[in-house]
Write a structure and sequence with these properties.
This protein is of the alpha/beta class. It is 59% helix and 8% strand. It has three domains: 138 residues, P-loop containing nucleotide triphosphate hydrolases (Rossmann fold), CATH 3.40.50; 70 residues, Helicase, Ruva Protein, domain 3; 125 residues, Zinc Finger, Delta Prime, domain 3 (Up-down Bundle), CATH 1.20.272.10. It has 17 helices and five strands. A five-stranded parallel sheet has the order 2-3-4-1-5, with helices on both faces. Helix 5 links the parallel strand 3 and strand 4. Helix 5 packs parallel to helix 6, helix 11 runs antiparallel to helix 12 and helix 13 packs antiparallel against helix 16. The radius of gyration is 23 Å and the shape is globular. InterPro entries: DNA_pol3_clamp-load_cplx_C (IPR008921), DNA_pol3_delta-like_C (IPR048466), DNA_pol3_delta_N (IPR010372), DNA_polIII_delta (IPR005790), P-loop_NTPase (IPR027417).
Length: 343
């Protein structure tokens, strides 16, 4: 079955007893959870929907949830996120537990729907995975294909009440590079970008190529490259100018902070893998980023030893915590980090 068909069935309360959804597209996986929850009576949700941590769950806890009768409804939904046995791990489940669970999947109570959600790949060699594929509805939630992606983007712009023609949608998708196999962008990233473009464009107005260029994530990424280059060259005034320009253009200081952290993580990973003898192409595949980003990271890494990078990453982590807990203003936190490592 296709994703949209499964969603349609769930919304129509045409439930199956067993599902497995896995893959890299977290937006689709999170949306599935939402659709399952929305299918139930909201006032009785706490009684009839259980979301369990698959990394900590035991056999007894899983079975007790599946066997529990729904309360004042005809359906109870049990969602298990990141179940350890599907990721080739065995913390709380013995081999006998796994064998018993496979047998149990054939006899799930009619009033129960058991849903496994795995963020990332599953180990299809495992008996449990084979049992799920045989007994239930299984779907790999990977990146949307070109046709589905175009429709999705078009609908998102429409929902934001701005006008955009097919040519500009295609241009937007080319700029965002979502479908590149080395890209780690998700639909959540595209949605955030669409919201930003729509907000800048204004209700009822037309999205143009110029607006897309002005707000494109590639421009933001290039600005982050420039900022880290300036920090590496100890150019405090240029670093502050780049930061202030980004904020004036409407970029969130917290987003800038997170992108700085992301780039320094890429730098230290690239340096370590390069030291192990891997080429830039192989490194890009291993850390799932574009080869250009790896090339840029290796060049930038020449200005930072690993000890400094670790210190910067710790500063970013501490700043993120302080900002989110109201201990410091976001812009000030960024300025402090830049000042500290430009000396």
């Amino acid at each position: 079955m296709k994703y949209k068909d499964i969603i349609k069935d769930i919304k129509s309360k045409n439930f199956k007893n067993l599902y497995l959804f896995y893959g890299r597209e977290t937006y689709l996986l999170d949306n599935i959870i939402k659709v399952f929850k929305d299918s139930l009576n909201s006032s009785l949700l706490d009684f009839n929907c259980s979301i369990l941590d698959g990394r900590e769950i035991t056999m007894d806890l899983l079975l007790s949830n599946v066997e529990t009768l729904p309360f004042m409804d005809d359906r109870r939904i049990i969602i298990v996120k990141d179940f350890e046995l599907l990721k080739n791990k065995r913390k709380n489940f013995t081999e006998k537990d796994e064998s018993d669970l496979i047998s149990y999947l054939k006899n799930i109570p009619q009033q129960s729907t058991l849903v496994f959600i795995v963020y990332g790949d599953i180990d299809k060699r495992r008996k449990l995975a084979k049992g799920l594929i045989k007994q239930g509805i299984v779907l790999n939630c990977d990146k949307l294909d070109s046709t589905e992606l175009f429709k999705w983007v078009k609908n998102k712009f429409k929902k934001e009440n701005v006008n955009i023609d097919a040519e500009q949608i295609i241009y937007f998708l080319n700029i965002e590079d979502y479908q590149n196999k080395n890209s780690n962008k998700t639909l959540s990233d595209l949605e955030n970008q669409i919201i930003k473009i729509a907000s800048f464009t204004g209700n009822g107005n037309v999205v143009t190529k110029e607006i897309i260029d002005k707000l494109s994530s590639k421009k933001i990424e290039n600005d982050i490259f420039k900022l880290i280059d300036a920090i590496g060259n100890k150019n405090s005034s240029l670093s502050m100018k780049i930061l202030n320009d980004m904020i004036l253009e409407g970029e969130s200081p917290l987003m800038i902070l997170n992108m700085i952290g992301r780039q320094f993580r890429i730098i230290i990973q690239s340096k370590q893998l390069k030291k192990m003898g891997y080429s830039s192409t192989v490194i890009s595949q291993k850390i799932n980023v574009h080869p250009y980003v790896v090339s840029k990271a290796l060049n930038q890494g020449m200005n930072f030893d690993n000890e400094i990078i670790v210190k910067i990453l710790n500063e970013v982590l501490n700043a993120d915590f302080s900002i989110k807990n109201g201990l410091i203003k976001d812009t000030l936190a960024l300025e402090i980090i830049i000042s500290k490592f430009c000396v």
